[in-house]
Amino acid sequence: MRVSPICFSLSGRGRLRDGHMARRHADWLAQARRDLKAARDSLADGNYEWCAFQAQQAAEKALKALLRFHHREIHGHTLVRLLKQIEDIGPIPADLPAMARELDRHYIQPRYPNAFAEGYPGEFYDEETATRCLRYAEEILAFVENRIG
Question: Which residues of the chain have pLDDT under 70?
Answer without folding.
Answer: 1-23
